[in-house]
Amino acid sequence: MELSATLLALCGFALLAGFVDAVVGGGGLIQIPALLVLLPQMEPVTLLGSNKFASVWGTAMASWQYTRRLPIEWASTLPTILTALLFGFLGARTAALIPRDWFRPLVLALLLAVLAYTLARKNLGSLHAPRLGRGASFWLALATGAVIGFYDGFFGPGTGSFLIFAFVGLFGFSFLAASASAKLVNLATNLAALSFFISHGQVRYEIAAPMALCNLAGGYLGSHLALKRGSGFVRALFLLVVSLLIARYAWDILRSA
């Protein structure tokens, strides 16, 4: 496949990834495999840097759309952002010390539990009803950011879905409000990671820049549709993405067995 056709295909995947990621996270499920398959000659770290450059624009667009149209629960969101940044860095530093394959069975079990719990509780996340006081919300947000931030730095895939589930299940957010807060946390952690990739020259801008425009467009479309359709739409797409994550991890475990 020549470069122009390859870039056109990557832009299509970036548009789809931005759309899905704006609603429930999981855009990396689409964009990273596309880069790996279509650009097999490129160094993996450069692919990751180019992916991060492209995806951060869609995340920024979705964050802007949500903050413009929804009241954000900053008392829970800001502490989550702060500890996610710190523990994301610690997770990345730890990644070289522990085999990442150890995480796959644990992540698969957690995703199955998330899927089962969400399916069993039909009204989960249908209403926005924060259940915690300011103090309890602050400390739980710190813990949430620490755990999920460390996971994001160490391993990564599914972080957006885990954040959404945490905001819904622990804090009592609606799926729509949870998606908004998760996007803001993702934006902060993505910018931190991107600063590393840019400073180390691991971004191919001739590929990443066109993908970024398409990812941004997908982020706009996804957040716009989520705001228009509400929590029921976000919940349905959340279940789909979690199911795809489960299928991916099950396949990875079977393939490496």
Walk me through the topology.
Elements: H1 3-24, H2 28-38, H3 44-69, H4 74-94, H5 103-120, H6 134-154, H7 159-169, H8 175-199, H9 205-229, H10 231-256
Radius of gyration: 17 Å
Number of strands: 0
The helix/strand class is mainly alpha
Largest sheet: none
Amino- and carboxy-terminal Cα gap? 33 Å
Tell me the helix content.
Answer: over 70%
Q: pLDDT below 50 for ≥5 consecutive residues: which ranges?
A: none
Average pLDDT number: 87
Binned strand content? under 5%
In terms of quaternary structure, the protein is single chain
What is the count of helical runs? 10
Series of secondary-structure elements, N-terminal to C-terminal: HHHHHHHHHH
Which terms would index this structure?
80% helix; transmembrane helix; mainly alpha; single chain; transmembrane; cell membrane; TM_pro_TauE-like; membrane; 257 residues
